[in-house]
């Protein structure tokens, strides 16, 4: 994943609503924008997400959209964060099978990877945006990383992950995202992605 640095150029209101600290109206407006982004991406991939189309579908003025998200890269990385948040919430409501931390983490990866591969247009859009993200998208990238690491910690049964734990989860997340990028660019197969993730998880966690 890109390195985490706090974004100091976030548009007014965007950081607060992203972290759940804005007003109810801000949070509801932000969700409408992200839902519109996801719908457009699911239909046509990265190229289908155009700012004017997102604004129209979300029922907000174009200027309002830009105050929340300065570019489509911001939009799509934030949408990826929302998808991980929803996935994490679903995970909290279910029992994760597996005898070891590696087994449980692999279950989570299988579940999320399979879901993403079922919607290749949406996955292509979000993963490409994540790949293109620069330091101006640092807040959204940090949120994605935090959500992934938290989800992996819950799967591994770790309530308070140490810096060492988070470093391992970060490496695994890097491997996952790199292979999803390779998948959306047709350089590897779905089976390759699953195999490489299992290899990374086993190498890093079975020794713990």
TrEMBL record:
PROSITE patterns referenced in this protein's UniProt entry, alphabetically: HTH_TETR_2 (PS50977)
Stretches assigned to coiled coil: none
Keywords: DNA-binding
DNA-binding region: 50-69
Protein's UniProt keywords contain DNA-binding: yes
Segments of this protein annotated with the region Disordered: 1-28
DNA-binding is among the record's keywords: yes
SUPFAM superfamilies reported for this sequence: Homeodomain-like
InterPro entries with a match to the protein in the record: Homeodomain-like_sf, HTH-type_TetR-like_transc_reg, HTH_TetR, KstR_C
Domain annotation HTH tetR-type: ranges: 27-87
GO molecular function, one term: DNA-binding transcription factor activity
The protein, known as: Transcriptional regulator
């Amino acid at each position: 994943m890109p390195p985490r640095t706090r974004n100091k150029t976030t548009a007014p209101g965007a950081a607060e609503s992203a972290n759940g600290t804005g007003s109810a109206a801000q949070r509801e407006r932000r969700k409408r924008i992200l839902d519109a982004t996801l719908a457009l991406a699911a239909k046509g991939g990265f190229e289908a997400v155009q700012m004017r189309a997102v604004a129209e579908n979300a029922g907000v003025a174009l200027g309002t959209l830009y105050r929340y998200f300065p570019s489509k890269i911001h939009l799509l990385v934030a949408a990826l964060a929302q998808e991980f948040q929803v996935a994490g919430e679903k995970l909290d409501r279910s029992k994760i099978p597996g005898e070891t931390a590696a087994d449980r983490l692999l279950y989570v990866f299988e579940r999320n990877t399979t879901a993403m591969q079922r919607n290749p247009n949406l996955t292509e859009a979000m993963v490409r945006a994540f790949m293109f993200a620069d330091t101006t998208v640092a807040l959204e990238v940090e949120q994605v990383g935090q959500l992934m690491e938290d989800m992996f910690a819950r799967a591994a049964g770790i309530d308070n992950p140490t810096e060492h734990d988070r470093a391992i989860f970060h490496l695994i997340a890097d491997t996952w995202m790199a292979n999803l990028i390779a998948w959306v660019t047709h350089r590897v197969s779905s089976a390759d992605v699953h195999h490489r993730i299992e290899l990374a998880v086993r190498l890093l966690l079975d020794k713990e």
